[in-house]
Write a structure and sequence with these properties.
Blueprint (H helix, E strand, L loop, with lengths): L1 H28 L7 H7 L1 H37 L8 H11 L3 H4 L2 E10 L5 E9 L2 E8 L4 E9 L5 E8 L11 E6 L8 H5 L8 E5 L8 H6 L2 H18 L10 E4 L2 E2 L6 H8 L7 E2 L2 E2 L1
Length: 292
């Protein structure tokens, strides 16, 4: 009986093992359920992270530059809007006011109008409207706040005998500096400024004037045209040459000498000019609640 029982247990064990093998074989050969393609893409981390990584890297590269550009342009626009000459209609009103003061019979017709900055012998900048007529060069001090012409310097074109243009320079021991370039017009090459005139900051007894770009020259296309120094120099040279030919001055050499050389400003310390130029005291500018 014992042997029979043992044989039965061995048979049962064999049959049990066979069943286990058959089940495992069936499970291994059972086909896997198909997963839709969309689910596979969602489950794949590479397919999700790759586009996000590209977007973040592009944002990281472009965002600071774009923000910096917007910030710079906003600051520049704020600075430019403080100039009264940019107020709508102000510049046109000023030009009409000055044109009304020109006598076509004595001065000739107005040929061109320019917006510039005049630099005196102590390196002080002053806002100016400049007109070229058939016979005169008009350098006008205009109050763009009160819309009133305060002063006009009239220079006959047939007296202009030299025009120099180039970068600004200072004496070797000067503490001042100025970037950019300008134009200097001489109407009496034989006369030199006196010692008293050189050291007097309010002196106007100079046989020349120096002009440069106005700070608002890049505000729009119209201002870029009327603030362009090189075009002004070319038109002034042609007008002066024509005036010399039509009305020569006795005792003066006819013609205009045009030179490309550095423009020397003989100023050494000029603390007031540094303060004034940095704060644009020579311009009609909005300063808080008070226009200066």
């Amino acid at each position: 009986m014992k042997s029979g029982i043992n044989r039965m247990s061995e048979k049962e064990e064999g049959s049990f093992k066979a069943v286990q093998l058959d089940q495992s074989t069936a499970e291994s050969t059972k086909p896997e359920p198909e997963v839709p393609q969309a689910h596979k893409n969602e489950a794949d981390p590479a397919s999700i992270q790759a586009p996000e990584t590209v977007e973040r890297s592009s944002d990281t590269v472009s965002s600071p530059a774009a923000q910096g550009g917007r910030w710079t342009s906003t600051v520049e626009q704020f600075k430019l809007k403080r100039f009264f000459v940019l107020r709508p209609g102000t510049l046109d009103h000023a030009i009409e006011d000055i044109k009304a003061m020109v006598n076509p019979k004595d001065d000739g017709d107005v040929q061109s109008v320019w917006l510039m900055a005049e630099i005196d012998h102590w390196n002080n900048e002053k806002e100016r409207l400049v007109l070229i007529t058939e016979k005169l060069l008009l350098i006008c001090k205009y109050d763009f706040i009160m819309l009133n012409c305060e002063q006009i310097h009239r220079v006959p074109l047939n007296f202009i005998d030299r025009i120099t243009y180039g970068a600004f320079s200072f004496p070797p021991r000067s503490l001042l500096k100025r970037e950019g370039e300008g134009v200097r017009l001489f109407w009496d090459r034989l006369r030199e400024p006196s010692f008293a005139a050189r050291w007097n900051p309010f002196s106007v007894d100079y046989p020349y004037t120096t002009l440069t770009y106005h700070p608002v020259r890049n505000a729009n296309d119209k201002l870029s045209r009327i603030c362009e120094i090189h075009t002004f120099r070319e038109q002034l040279t042609a007008a002066a040459q024509k005036a010399h030919a039509q009305n020569p001055v006795p005792g003066k050499a006819n013609g205009v000498l045009v030179l490309n050389q550095p423009i020397l400003i003989e100023a050494y310390v000029g603390i007031m000019s540094v303060i004034g130029n940095q704060n644009k005291l020579g311009y009609c500018l909005a300063r808080g609640n008070v226009g200066f």
